[in-house]
Protein: PTHD3 protein
Amino acid sequence: RLSCVRNNVWLACCGVLSSGLAVLSSFGLMLYCGVPFVATVANAPFLILGVGVDDMFIMIASWEQSSRKAEKSDTKSRLAETYREAALSVTITTLTDVLAFFIGTWTAFPSVRSFCLYTGTAFVFCYVYVITFFGAVIALNHKRVKGNRHWITCMQVEVGKKSCLYNACCIGSCARESPEPETSETESEHPMSIFFQKYYGPFLTGRWIKLLVVLLYGAYLGGSIYGCTQMREGIDLRNLANDDSYVIAYYDDDDRYFSEYGPRVMVVVTGSVQYW
Structure:
């Protein structure tokens, strides 16, 4: 938004911060409990960030729609309506993610077990922070907007008393008018909402379009089933290196000259031996 009062930059930053807090909390708890930290766990923050940002968008979208559905326009009523709409979706997605990763802890591989423990616990903390910390941030941001305060300085914005530069920085335009108030109309009229409501929705619900979607999904499902039957276990280590890496040439020579000897066998001698 161009309006420096209704701008939600800090709200988005706090949504990302809630994901970071979830990562710190889960990692700290697992390390405190003595769960080994393996290299694959370093990829967990990216998964948590994706889920946390998704939950953040769900919360913000429900908040913007709450102005039309809540019986009252006060913060308490709107936040209650926001949780009524968003909490179910956030809870279900979090529950499925947590179950998926905690089931992975049954594996016999210690590295995979540690990764699933760290990530599953992080999903739990991410859910807790979204419904507590981020909800509180939404309420504080609404209070700031109602007070007509700037999104950076949180100072009261004066209208029509300063220069064009001041109005552009503090109001969003050179016009000497009050910033757009937060109403049900301004909250719901988002360009993406208009597109999906007036254009994409009617297009997708057409008779022939629905038939085409079913046919495309059937073709996709058939291709996916066929692809699953063609999957084979194993991994080619060449795919893990760059094309110009010396590792590629090493494995090529290894297959060319030493493949006939079979796998390597290593012997560990624990006693004292005169190797000479």
In short: Residues 8-175 form one domain. The CA atoms of residues 23 and 122 lie 6 Å apart. Confidence is low (pLDDT under 50) at residues 179-188. The two ends are 78 Å apart (CA to CA).
